[in-house]
């Protein structure tokens, strides 16, 4: 999809030829003299339209408007959230049409600043994503151009660029998370990462079973040993900051399918465990966005990728393995595999002397019970880091909620047979999982995002959400501002107004 940013007056917008013109109408919009504004005023007076976010009035070849279709979309208070609702509603109404070129007018909004423009671009991109990789006759993607109209470029250009860059990352994340496990093996995931390595500022290295054995990642290897698919340990690097500047490390859980192993899961909805690499997909998507946005900071991405399968060689409950950190782990439940691959990645992260490490994982069903699909669970041993992540969640509308890490929660992980067990009781399952990870994260400020409830949707709208890529990108961008080391921002290599997704 191509996006373009334009400044147009309301009168010019009415005269602009396109397949569909979407005009956002906020609560306190001044009533203009152009055809669309007049129509909006009239419709509101007649009670046929409201400016409430989510309300819609469509017309076909209306008088005084050059667009084939006109959609008035209520944008309520004009906040980013209302704009997201408005654009999502309008785009949904266009889904079954032949519309190829859309004009999206934000000119009547009280403030078309960078936050609102970004929200509009993201909602457009999100609504037009269609999964087609494993369909024999892929649905034709008709909509291919959206022109966003704003009163001034100065106020919205940066938000537009952010939105377009972020949308590319989100699309990549959704795509890889949606792919079935036989089309997204650890090897294929590593190949996708290698492709990313061709983008400006990015480097990618992939380790296989031999290298991982040499590193002593006994915990990660233990999970992988039940599968015919060889494990991959993916290392991504984005170097936008000064050489000496310590990086932020992102670690994504890359279980390409989680059967539960010998502690096998029930059959119902087990297909959804193809999404158990949602953390990994969000790291890939974040790097895709970094390549677009080129911020002045250094970022490392680590993805331990493997399948969790039952097999003659699979780990058994009670097995004790030695992690890369040297700590021994009693695997009481082979379905608590995420923490077993993450702990070795956390130890590996030490070599980068990171300023912060954030792991992202579809880690526990307990987190789904605790927070549902609205907020990701956030755990951190560092208040400043926790605050930055919470703020990034708010600013990107990709919310998270800080959870506790009291020492008492670790009591259940005690065992007679190893340094630590991989599970405690059922109570507080999301927290005990985080306590397990914390044991391997003592050498740097650390945070853990449990995205089990937010990374995908079940039911009719089944599919990946792309979360928490918006949160991660906003968090990383905030780290540029707080970075103490002087940096030289690389100018974007692409044109401002037109980009291809
Ligand atoms: N991948 C699952 C977590 C999960 C469950 C994500 C449901 C999304 C929806 C994870 O590997 C797992 O199986 N966790 C277990 C841990 C338990 C054995 C302590 C769980 O949550 O049941
Ligand atoms: Mn599991
Ligand atoms: Zn899992």
A few lines on this structure:
With 501 residues, this protein is an alpha/beta fold. It has helices at residues 10-15, 35-46, 80-93, 114-128, 153-178, 186-196, 209-215, 218-224, 278-293, 338-349, 365-371, 383-395, 429-438, 469-482; strands at residues 2-7, 20-25, 56-60, 69-74, 101-105, 145-150, 202-207, 232-239, 248-252, 254-258, 298-308, 319-322, 328-331, 356-361, 376-380, 400-402, 420-421, 446-450, 456-457, 463-464, 499-500.
List keywords for this structure.
501 residues; alpha/beta; seven-stranded mixed β-sheet; 14 helices; 21 strands; 34% helix; elongated; binds ligand BES; binds manganese (II) ion; binds zinc ion
The helix fraction, in percent, is 25-40%
Task: Supply the number of helical segments.
Answer: 14
What ligands can be seen in this structure?
ligand BES, manganese (II) ion, zinc ion
Q: Rg from C-alpha positions?
A: 24 Å
Q: What is the tally of beta strands?
A: 21
Query: Low-confidence stretches at least 5 residues in length (pLDDT < 50)?
Result: 485-501
Distance between the termini: 5 Å
- Major sheet characteristics: 9 strands, mixed
Envelope shape: elongated
Structure classification: alpha/beta
User: Mean pLDDT, rounded to whole units?
Assistant: 94
Residue share in β-strands: 15-25%
């Amino acid at each position: 999809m191509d996006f373009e940013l334009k400044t147009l007056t309301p009168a010019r917008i009415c005269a602009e030829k396109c397949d569909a013109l979407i005009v956002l109408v906020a609560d306190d919009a001044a009533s203009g003299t152009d055809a669309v504004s007049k129509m909006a005023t009239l419709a509101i007076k007649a009670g046929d339209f409201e400016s409430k976010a989510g309300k819609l009035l469509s017309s076909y070849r209306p008088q005084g408007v050059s667009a084939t279709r006109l959609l008035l979309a209520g944008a309520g208070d004009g906040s980013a959230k209302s704009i997201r609702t408005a654009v999502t509603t309008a785009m949904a109404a266009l889904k079954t049409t032949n519309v190829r070129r859309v004009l999206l007018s934000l000119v009547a909004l009280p403030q078309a600043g960078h936050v609102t423009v970004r929200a509009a671009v993201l909602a457009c991109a999100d609504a037009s994503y269609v999964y087609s990789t494993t369909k024999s006759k892929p649905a034709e993607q008709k909509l291919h151009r959206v022109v966003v109209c704003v009163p001034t470029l100065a106020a919205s250009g940066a938000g537009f660029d952010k939105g377009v860059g972020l949308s590319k990352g989100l699309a990549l994340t959704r795509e890889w998370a949606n792919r079935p496990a036989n089309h997204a093996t650890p090897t294929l995931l590593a190949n996708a990462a290698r492709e990313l390595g061709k983008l400006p500022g990015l480097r990618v290295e992939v380790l296989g079973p031999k290298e991982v054995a040499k590193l002593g990642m006994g915990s990660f290897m233990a999970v992988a040993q039940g599968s015919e698919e060889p494990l991959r340990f993916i290392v991504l690097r984005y170097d936008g900051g000064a050489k000496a500047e310590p990086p932020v490390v992102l670690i994504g859980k890359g279980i390409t399918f989680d059967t539960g192993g010998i502690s096998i899961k029930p059959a119902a909805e087990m297909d959804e465990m193809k999404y158990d690499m949602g953390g990994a997909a969000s790291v890939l998507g974040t790097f895709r966005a970094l390549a677009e946005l080129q911020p002045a900071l250094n970022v490392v991405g680590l993805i331990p990728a493997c399948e969790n399968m039952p097999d003659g060689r699979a780990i058994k409950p009670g097995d004790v393995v030695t992690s890369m950190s040297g700590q021994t782990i009693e695997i009481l439940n082979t379905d608590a595999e995420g923490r077993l691959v993450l702990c070795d990645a956390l130890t590996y992260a030490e070599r980068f002397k990171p300023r912060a490490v954030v792991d992202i994982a579809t880690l526990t069903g307990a987190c789904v019970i605790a927070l549902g699909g609205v907020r990701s669970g956030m755990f951190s041993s560092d208040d400043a880091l926790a605050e930055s992540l919470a703020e990034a969640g708010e600013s990107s509308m990709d919310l998270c909620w800080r959870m506790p890490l009291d020492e008492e929660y670790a009591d259940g992980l005690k065992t007679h047979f190893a340094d630590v067990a991989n599970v405690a009781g059922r109570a507080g399952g999301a927290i005990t999982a985080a306590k397990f990870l914390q044991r391997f994260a003592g050498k740097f400020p650390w945070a853990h995002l449990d995205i089990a409830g937010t990374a995908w949707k079940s039911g009719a709208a089944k599919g990946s959400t792309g979360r928490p890529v918006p949160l991660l990108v906003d968090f990383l961008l905030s780290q540029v501002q707080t970075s103490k080391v002087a940096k030289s921002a690389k100018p974007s290599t692409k044109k401002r107004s037109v980009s291809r997704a």
